[in-house]
Specification:
The chain is an alpha+beta fold. 31% of the residues lie in helices and 20% in strands.
């Protein structure tokens, strides 16, 4: 019950603004203001028991207790390292971020770009933190994580060796905001060592909440420089790298002094008049602070002699600071990948700068339920979560003729990591986008199935990747679409965040959250033609004119054994008791002939559905096929109900045998009966003053006892 209550409370808090930058989630439930106040009141310095300075904070392998890097590490507060430590001196700049002995240049490159945008920087590094007024050894930072902002609290014990900081440090010797930020990010990810395995686009997203796009510079579009030029003038972060072909090339330098396998931040793009023409330049920064490009347009190159002195001064050219200029033509040849992360992706391609409309959905791939794998697995692909979108308003500058307007969207699929899950367990993920045919327009409640897949709609699929996020920009004609996120292979569990960025607002919802309940009820004509049923009933009931659960078990198992199309070990007594609970209207825990007739016809319906679904005659049905079986039985259920069915009724092999199948159908009918008994206004909605857990227990009770008794119990609890 505690888990359900916590979820309800979290959902309510989110609706009230929790998770925004102004009201971030407290990481590990640590409240900065409360902890700081306690330290000030007790006149003690904060020690973080959730990320204690020691072995676990450093790492597990290269920074583990038996490693060379671990030896000699001492944790010290800044006052033990510097005479007068300062949080920030004369504003935060990229010079404050120097790489230490940790391979996290991707993190540093992203943050170096952020220092050039004070408004964005202030969202990550809260102001009014110092080592002077009300100093308590505690600091806090904010990061974006999977759709929400979180506040991370740290103490100021930092790893040192021989009195010097081991990791990030500042050019200003006693300035320590950057190593404290690095510690907070290490805490968020689990340890310092984890930071050696991230990517540039991940860090850029975690600092902004934006969405990243990756460009392969060997396949660079013709207008890429224009995209970069506009991106540097908008609220965007840019970075690039030179890919390596084997691990031995990591941090090797090229003949032009560029470092392979190393993340650079892009800090500017300018077109400069030079000898009667404009030259396209790109300004780079190496987080190491040295190893600068030594080719044309480098700090001391002769090209600068033919540039107007005023232009040269405006470009802020300095020597040996890790920042340098390159001609775009050289840059696109030397580097292999460009990462762009923007809060306003439309500013990269549109002459008008305005925010895009954004929509986010959290989802899950559940093993045996919604983890259907890619289209390489057509039997299960359709079981994946599906999202329906409608594009109605074309872009301002859409491509194509006016009678075929298009809408630009960026779809980002991000798998969620946790401190309990190693990045070695990264899933290979991707998504497909399908155009919905005209005959299925305006039907967002219809879940894609195998038949739909055979219609031949060409999907706009992303590439599958084992990175944290895969994203793609596409232009789609106005219309309805289905987005299907998946893992490459089926049965791979995981959590994900799906984000849609669109120039105009879109209508979007998750398919499978619509409930339709219409269980089978025999027609009067069917009930009239029941001489066979009457004979079976009287054979067991005799003079009693009623049958018990044990009688029903005897009747049904004899009947089932004579069915050549059904492989079954028969029905258990518990299942037969549930049948009696469903049909027993007078509370006798037995069934009359009239009640037995209805039950018999219902069971024949469910038997036929089971036989139809059990194509291989194995005596069980694949859990992936349950959605279709349920629909044939009159139950269109939500994904959450599908997951509950999996957990309750499936066997170890992710299959449901005949007895469990029948019990599931009986339980769903009982649930329907309970709901409609309580829905006195026929509004398809009921309100109960009980927790969700208590509601679940009462529904389970409905499967074991007479429905009328459960309704009485619910009424009593409601009065309490």
């Amino acid at each position: 019950m505690a888990a359900v209550a916590a979820k309800v409370a979290k959902d309510r808090a989110v609706a009230e603004g929790l998770g925004t930058n102004k009201n971030p989630v407290k990481f590990l439930d640590q409240d900065y203001e409360e902890l700081r106040a306690k330290c000030l009141a007790s006149k003690t310095l904060f020690r973080d028991d959730k990320f204690p300075a020691g072995d676990s904070a450093l790492g597990y392998k290269d920074l583990g207790p038996n490693s060379d890097q671990f030896e000699g590490i001492e944790w010290k507060r800044p006052s033990e390292i510097y005479h007068e430590p300062q949080f920030i001196i004369d504003g935060a700049t990229h010079a404050d971020i120097r790489q230490g002995k940790l391979g996290n240049c991707w993190f540093l490159a992203a943050f170096a770009s952020l220092t050039m945008k004070p408004d964005l920087l202030a969202r990550v590094v809260p102001e009014k933190q110092s080592f002077e007024k009300d100093y308590a050894g505690i600091f806090h930072f904010k990061f974006w994580q999977y759709g929400e902002w979180v506040e991370v609290v740290v103490d100021d014990l930092l790893p040192t060796k021989e009195g010097s900081l081991q990791f990030v440090y500042s050019d200003m010797e006693n300035e320590v905001w950057s190593p404290l930020l690095e510690k907070a990010y290490a805490k968020l990810n689990g340890s310092y060592e984890v930071l050696t395995g991230g990517t540039l686009n991940e860090a850029m997203e975690d600092f902004t909440g934006g969405i990243s796009e990756i460009y392969d510079l060997k396949k660079a579009p013709d207008d890429l420089y224009q995209i970069m030029l506009k991106a540097t003038k908008a609220e965007s972060l840019l970075g690039c790298s030179i890919n390596i072909t084997n691990p031995n090339e990591t941090e090797d330098t090229t003949s032009r002094n560029l470092v392979k396998g190393h993340a650079y931040s892009i800090t500017g793009a300018e077109e400069v008049p030079y000898k009667g023409k404009n030259v396209q330049l790109v300004r780079m920064r190496n987080p190491w602070g040295d190893y600068e490009w030594n080719g044309p347009w480098s700090d001391e190159s002769s090209e600068w002699n033919d540039v107007d002195p005023n232009v040269r001064a405006a470009l802020n050219r300095k020597a040996d600071d890790g920042e340098f200029w390159m001609a775009y033509s050289d840059w696109v040849k030397e580097f292999t990948q460009l990462d762009i992360c923007s809060l306003h992706p439309d500013s990269l391609t549109s002459n008008e700068q305005h925010k895009w409309s954004t929509t986010m959905f959290n989802g899950n791939w559940i093993r045996g339920s919604t983890a259907g794998g890619s289209q390489d697995y057509p039997e299960t692909f359709w079981a994946n979560p599906q999202f329906w979108i409608r594009l109605t308003d074309p872009d301002h500058d859409h491509d194509g003729p006016t009678d075929a307007p298009c809408c630009t969207i960026i779809v980002g699929l991000m798998q969620k990591f946790s401190q309990k899950k190693s990045r070695d367990d990264t899933l290979t993920i991707g998504y497909a986008v399908f155009r919905v045919p005209e005959e299925m327009q305006n039907k967002p409640d219809i879940h894609l199935n195998k038949d739909f897949q055979m219609i031949g709609i060409e999907p706009h699929s992303s590439k599958f990747t084992n990175m944290r996020e895969v994203s793609k920009r596409m232009k789609l004609p106005v219309g309805d679409y289905l987005i299907v996120p998946s893992t490459l292979e089926p049965l791979k569990p995981g959590d994900f965040l799906l984000r849609i960025f669109s120039e105009k607002s879109v209508v979007m919802l998750e398919v499978g959250n619509v409930v339709k309940v219409d269980p089978f009820e025999p027609e009067d004509s069917e009930l009239a033609m029941t001489k066979q049923i009457k004979d079976v009933f009287q054979k067991v009931a005799g003079d009693k004119d009623e049958v018990t659960a044990k009688d029903i078990q005897t009747i049904m198992n004899e009947h089932l054994s004579n069915n050549p199309d059904l492989k079954s070990n028969g029905l258990t007594l518990d299942t037969c008791r549930d049948m009696v609970s469903l049909m027993d209207m007078d509370g006798t825990k037995t069934l009359s002939l009239a009640e037995f007739k209805i039950l018999w016809l219902k069971l024949q319906k469910y038997i036929n559905i089971f036989i139809k679904t059990d194509k291989d005659k194995s005596g069980s049905v694949d859990i992936f096929e349950m959605r279709s079986a349920l629909k044939d039985a009159g139950f269109t259920v939500t994904t959450k109900v599908q997951e509950a069915i999996l957990q309750r009724y499936s066997k170890s092999g992710l299959t449901i045998d005949f007895d469990s199948f029948i019990r599931c159908m009986i339980h769903l009918e009982s649930l329907t009966e309970v709901f409609y008994l309580l829905d006195k206004t026929k509004s398809e909605t009921i309100t109960l003053n009980v927790t969700e857990d208590n509601m679940f227990e009462l529904i389970m009770k409905a499967f074991r006892e007479n429905v009328s008794h459960v309704v009485k119990d619910m009424t009593t609890m409601r009065q309490l």
